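Forum > Structural Biology > Help requests

Title: Can anyone predict the 3D structure of site-specific DNA-methyltransferase (adenine-specific)?

Hi all, first post here. I have the sequence for site-specific DNA-methyltransferase (adenine-specific) but no way to get a structure on my laptop. I'd be grateful if someone could post the structure tokens.
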Amino acid sequence: MITSEEIKRRLWDGANELRGSMDASRYKDYMLGLMFYKFLSDKTLEIFKASAVKGPVTEAQLVEEYTKSREEYGEDLDLMIQKVLGYYVKPEYLYHTWLKDINSGNFEVQRVTDSLNYFERTLAVSGDSNDFKGLFSSSTLDLTDTALGSNLNERSKNIRALILLFADLNMVALQKGDVLGDAYEYLIGQFAMESGKKAGEFYTPRQVSEVMAQIVAKTSNIESIYDPTVGSGSLLLTVKKHLSQEVQKSLSYYGQEKNTATYNLTRMNLLLHGVRPEKMTIKNGDTLSHDWPEDPDRPNEGVLFDAVVMNPPYSAKNWNKAGLKGSEPRFEIVDGILPPDSKGDFAFLLHGLYHLGQNGTMAIVLPHGVLFRGSSESEIRKRLLEKNRIDAIIGLPSNLFTNTGIPVCILILKKNREVGEPVLVIDASKNFIKNGKQNILQEKDIAKIVDAYINRAEIKGYSHLATREEIIENDFNMNIPRYVEVVDSEIAHDVDGHLYGGIPQKNIDDLIVLQKTVKDIIDSCLAPIRDGYFVLIKPISELTATVLSDSRVIQKSQEIKAKTEDFIATYWEALRKIDDVLEINPLMEEMLSHIKELLSGVEFIDVYDGYQIVAEIWKNALTHDTELIAGSDFYTAGRTREPNMVTKGTGSNKREEQDGWIGAIVPNDLIAKRLYSKELQAIEDKKTHVSEIESELTELVEAAKVEDSDENDALYDALKKNEDDEPQDSFENKLVKAELKKAIKKTTKYDLLKKVDNLIEEKSDLGKKIKYEEKKLKEAIYERILVLTDEEIDKLIFEKWFGTTVADLVKLVEIPLKEEIATLEMLNNRYANKLSDIDDEINKLESDLELLMSELVVL
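Reply #1:
Sure, ran it for you. Structure tokens for site-specific DNA-methyltransferase (adenine-specific) below:
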């Protein structure tokens, strides 16, 4: 079984290989469009097979049966399939027919063009399935575009290669576990990163979507969801992911998108994620110019939704081209005030809020300017706050988006807030890691934001509940620093400490973790030098060792160890017994929630660091492995091997070749480490010996370069030389042997040359043995994968998944202690030199200078 990660990697590598210099934002339309057409063809064959074919058949046989049946039943067969799917693909226009043409050498681009055009025509004639109309219009997929190749042959070659990318993927089978949808979403994200500023037209970064989706999913009973600037549909689908399977079945999706190509991408994306056509209503239109969706029976109320999510264009200029007036129902909530023509941020917000149900939740991403800009935006903000619609403001880091480096914020809005309820302000702008030029929210950062929102938590330096009085005092300016004070981690300097030395008592008292955990140890390591000031009287290494080996710290570590072992035992069986890919996400959510609960009662441990440890296990191993286990079973997956494909060559010679085998879920290196430790050690010993020989040869090379030495006389002529006859950093084997033949036996020169010759021979011999033994070991591992016992698989997979988990979580006990010990060391160094010591040093330097000056002789 192929996993979503393998599909993602293969398709993205293929995209990079094939698109050449073509702009990524344009190439995505071709790649994702043809991928979707393969899905439509596979679905057509699936429905035909279910209704007309008995018993197992190959794909080629199925296509042949479909072709025969179409000849026999004609349009009746078309109508039968169309009644089920809302569309059909005739045999001669199947994706599989393109592949047959390619394999027979009869492929023509026109066949693809005809197929796409016929699909469009059948929908137009039938009048059904608006969800599929226009997906393959020439404006989206123009196969005559010279960007695909400067001539017909080039275009044919590139389109053929693109078609072959999806040849062996059964899109219907992959859709059932959402593997296909995940791969599609991944490709959209990758194209977004490559597209730069154009990415904003169709993609919201995953981590931003996650924050919005989790908040919305956890705070509303959702039966309908709306994204007025839907892009590729990623926000809608991220919310879907966080809802139960039961809720997903009845969920209705609405979205509007101005860009036609992106509108098509949205529909494809939703359909590939298993959203039924009747459950999605996507419109190609301008959200601001014309309100949509509208209820004909209530023209002034608008259609309301349980959840609204939006990532609109930031500060859109000339947004009011339709000449909207303040009397427009969408602006009534702010008393008809229109946002400025130069910035459409509040126009999008008010549109979304207008369509939000009374008990729903809205999440929108906007630039920080909406929090503090003046003029009409200030008045709009004031009215939204006065009417109690803003529930939370979440500040995010800069550089999260591929299309802008500016920091953004998420606004959460509701219509059912209690009177006088404060606005939660969260400053998450400093919680991220860097990945090249981009900043990334880790899983723990997302979890902390969502938890702070759900719990309405006030956390020093991170979140604050801003009361109505505070907001009025700030004249309705919601700039985050006005409400969340930055915690200054820098410890203020103490003047007396610098003048007279010693660590101030206040700084020692501020070491809360050490004071509450091992106060007696800290007190014993500090000596007073005067009232309120102390010096450290033990080396920091000794203090660290004493603290970490203290019984209270060890007891706390043992508690964490026991809890972690119980945690692992709880999920070990569940992970091994997964038999449906639909179980994977709920189990992951359960594990992540459980680890937070488990650590939340432990003082001084950062719960979210523990959360990240478990999230990394899922990212690095469990997501991939559980997919394979669900597709077969634990022990079958453990005894499955896959070709190890490597890329060789460059340019036109670049190709993929098999280089042995790898375990599907059991890593080869772990098999070697645990089941072939003696063989592995023997190889390592030889490699160590090779390193020793290389060191000895290097010493002899260096000695040979020293003039008037025995080594120089004996070995210089055996050194490699460059074109200028300058000695290099190694011996040349041929020269060593030539010099050895000329040398007289039992002389120093002969002995040194013989020594070098022996070392080179020994190194060569060892190299051959290492190569042979490594090959033997690899081959043994390839075969061992197939016959691993159940017990071996248990041990190896347990180590792969949870080998360091206990130690990693136990380290969380030590982290705050070590941080405070480091602070204590810094303070001790800061105040080690008092003013009098510095004065004495200055006086000494001045005396030394005077003495030196007096000794100078003027000639």
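The chain has a mean pLDDT of 89. The CA atoms of residues 460 and 838 lie 39 Å apart.
Shout if anything looks off.
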